[in-house]
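INFO  loader      accepted 1 record
INFO  loader      residues=222
INFO  predictor   begin
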Amino acid sequence: MHRYHLRILRFICLSGIALCLAVVGWGAGCSKGVIDRGKRWTCYRDADDAMLRQDHETGILLHQQFLEKEPENGLALYHLGYAYGQTGDHLKEVLYYEKAIALGFKKNRIFFNLGMAYGELNQIEKSIGTFRMALDVNPDNADNHFWLAMAYQKNFADKLAEKELLKAVKIDPEHVNARLYLSMLYADRGDLQKAAEQLRKILEIDPDHGMAREFLESIETE
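INFO  predictor   done
INFO  writer      dumping tokens
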């Protein structure tokens, strides 16, 4: 497959993955609270409810009001950052994540989302460093390895990206997105046999995966 078409395929696929992860990136709710490093963090149920119904503007307002009373609440700061991220304001997203981390809120999910936010701001070195922090907290999380690989790819470090993608599929053999990006790396390298192997494994997992099927067909006609 021509490299130009591979770049388009990467963009389409990565955009779809990011959209899916935006839904799962919320993490612990305010009212449920979390315990991290001996601290119990809770925040405001109404703010939580606003976020759950994806009313991010209201979520921002309610978290801001709550933080006026509890300015050192790491969970509320994290959720405020997340809410800003959902509106596309990644500068403020990063700001509040960093404030939460500085106060000791150091859960896997905040590092993951911070790495994603740095990526949106095209601060790739910071994105790489933050995904490494996420892996320090949870080295067995396949998505942490996958998104570190994506950051490496943006930095043109394909060998490091391949290493992380292989770790992702070792942890989660059904990680379709990691296998898809491995197939693209191998195709870029000219190793069409390895690329096809990954695509066939994807189709074993998901026979209806149209992108993998189309990519495999294009390889087989080379």
